[in-house]
């Protein structure tokens, strides 16, 4: 699979940013009524807002570019043809894994695209909910009403992102170790294609 340079740059920014964001969340002190958050919480808020900007760029790029990695590849759920492609790709993976290997990765993988789309949705929901908290929460005061609900959604999505990061990274390393070169290809913004 060949990705354009801008897609690779967005992927690197998201991979690094979300990984740092999730790691920071493990050590930060959340603000509570009468207590402010710590410096790691401030980093988490600001990095989250910056990641929202990168995610918006990714969405716009996915909707406007042509080629193999457009929006339809990320969200196959609205097309019978793409859903059938996804079923075929899942079968291809099952067959290859049954033989102790991964399928070749030269062509666009419907399974990988659908999984990336799910990660994009979870990441965007986390960034939007976190940015709403940044903008509307009053530090040191309890969140109530709709903002409390947004905070709950944000906290529920965190573990989903951890799972996504783990599976996505493991799949990338597995393909790289299988000789597909997909990880090195995605992480090189200096390569032309």
Structural commentary:
The protein has 193 residues and is mainly α. It has one domain: Up-down Bundle (Fumarate Reductase Cytochrome B subunit), CATH 1.20.950. It is built from seven helices and no strands. The protein is elongated. The model has no long low-confidence stretch (mean pLDDT 88).
Compact summary:
The chain has a single domain, classed as Up-down Bundle (Fumarate Reductase Cytochrome B subunit). Helix content is 71%, strand content 0%. It is built from seven helices and no strands.
Index terms:
mainly alpha; 0% strand; single chain; 193 residues; Fumarate Reductase Cytochrome B subunit; 71% helix
Helix and strand topology:
Elements: H1 5-27, H2 39-64, H3 71-74, H4 80-98, H5 110-136, H6 145-177, H7 182-186
Helix pairs in contact: 1-2, 2-5, 5-6
GO molecular function: electron transfer activity
Protein name: Cytochrome b561 bacterial/Ni-hydrogenase domain-containing protein
Subcellular location: Cell membrane
Oligomer: single chain
CATH architecture: Up-down Bundle
Task: Examine the coordinates and then state which fold CATH places here, giving the name of the CATH topology.
Answer: Fumarate Reductase Cytochrome B subunit
Number of strands: 0
Let me know the average pLDDT. 88
Radius of gyration computed on alpha carbons: 19 Å
Distance between the termini: 10 Å
SSE string, helix = H, strand = E? Answer: HHHHHHH
- Report the top-level CATH class: Mainly Alpha
Strand percent estimate: under 5%
Q: Could you name the ranges where pLDDT drops below 50 across 5 or more consecutive residues?
A: none
Number of domains: 1
Shape from CA axes?
elongated
Range of helix content: over 70%
Biggest sheet statistics: none
Q: Which class do the helix and strand fractions yield?
A: mainly alpha
Number of helices: 7
